[in-house]
Amino acid sequence: MTQTRPRIARLKAAMAAEGIDALICFKPEHTFYLSGFNPIIYSHPVIVILPLEGDPVLMVHALRDDHGRSESWVTDIRLYGAWSTKVTMGPNWQEALASVLDEKGVRQGTIGLEEDAMPLARYRVMQGILPGARLVDSSEIFDRCRLIKDPDEIANARIAATLADHGMDAAVEAVAQGCNEREISTLSMAAMNRYWTEHLPDVEVADFGTLEGGAQNGLWTWTLAGDRMFRNCDNSSLRQPKRGETVAIFIWAVANGIHAENERTVAYGPIPAANRRALDTILKIREDIAPLMRPGTPLAELFNVTKRGLEAAGYAANIPGRIGHTIGIGAHEHTSLDAKSTVVLQPGMMFTLEPNLRVPAENVATQISDTILITDTGHEFLTRSRGGYLEV
């Protein structure tokens, strides 16, 4: 019998409330969420069926059999397709899926599908497989359940944060040595990979792939200097930071499928007064937010504190649309820290804290982010590399 995780119970409670008999999952993040298996490349669909009654079923192509059985905590694994001497349920996933749904007695029931991630062509295939079922969108159910992290997810987030911290230390040192954007980034990623190699023998750092490719290594750093900070996300270039500029370092790290984010703005020598004032304003706002990061606080209040702080400092025209996002299986999960959020903080939630400024007219940009865990009594910074005003 499958040793399930608390998230399975949360999902089943949500399914019962919505009258859903089974969830069928194709989205890589969700099949991993329900099984612990990441094949890295999804050239053949990985499918998880979660019936309201009973354990999850993991369905993989026969060529993924050995990999799936070695990593998944789901014990009911079914095969489709043809591969060597593997015995399968049939030549394709469509027939195999129909057989499992018949076996579970849910093929004529209410079936939840991830409509926010499912291509229209596949949705039409599902309509053909399930002509007598009522198909409903399960996307919001997953978003709600993923807000609370299970103990295994929190443990892996701590590892990812440690990796990100090592990467950030190396990146800041590389700025001090006068390296260009690409050198800063590669030295940072090398530091993370070295720590992974030397200290984490049982941790995987693969990220989630697609039908056409995979991400063997999800320890990523990119660096943007000077006016390139306004690009927010771009490949690092050969541009060398100039004295008096700020340099933004962005790091995503992953450990066993769970992400952490660490971002810092580094001053390369003394910077203009406008840039320093912006950084000091953001650092003060982060201090003001910190006491509110505890169970019971509405996420929107964290944004409102930022808004009031920026307005008071004269940045009313530069208020960002959000000041962070939830994080976990996704480096950017769907819930934003913005004025519209109705989410109230609970123990086990994780998010990034990143109130920031972009003032193009003054060539001013800041980028500081940490990964935060809400605890029973308050919060914990999972990323712990040096913060505050950084000048090298």
From TrEMBL:
Domain Creatinase N-terminal: 7-148
All residue ranges annotated as the Peptidase M24 domain in the record: 157-376
Pfam families in the cross-refs: Creatinase_N (PF01321), Peptidase_M24 (PF00557)
Protein name: M24 family metallopeptidase
Taxonomic source organism: Frigidibacter albus
